[in-house]
What we know:
By secondary structure, the protein is α/β, with parallel strands linked by helices.
Amino acid sequence: MISASILSADFSRLREEVLSVLDAGAERIHLDIMDGHFVPNLSFGPPVVRSLGRIPAPMDVHLMVENPGSYISPFAELGCEVITVHVEASIHLHRLLTLIREAGCKAGVSLNPATPGETLHPVLPFLDEILVMTVDPGFGGQKLIPEVLEKVSKIREMIDLSGQDIVLEVDGGIKVENIEKVARSGATRFVVGSGIFHTSDYRTTIEKLKENVDNAHGLYI
């Protein structure tokens, strides 16, 4: 599944960009929420998402913020399907994941590149998705850190051994030329920002992204 990160979109015509990328074949819209504290950048919040109106695809929220608990209700009320919090920013992670599910959303946890995958063991039963960052969060357009893919593979093994139905997603520097390698590490969902929005033909780019995932998995998921 390709999830288009609108952080790299043209915000002067954001709804048009969202509809265009969905029409081109993206299955989900990824919302990077930054507070200027947990990461050294500001992005946008619920009012911008509300301004999009109803869109014909699920939205997933990636909270790169110091106080993620205060953002759960606003985004749940906007109908977002998944809310993901960072393990590094969450003092009471079990509680946050429970609150996300109680709000009617799927619960996700994200890991920065330097955070070991083993930190997820205690919260696996509370998870619907795991989002592994292959760049340090905070800015779009960074290059993927290839060493993180070994961690992705280990998390894939952890999920498979648990027997749980947890989606493994990767975010950061994913483009046509490297998505096959990322898919071979065990990921099944891919957040792509500049790798789509900074190309001239969204449809052709997304078709090629999916084709390269097919090459890795044998069957596009």
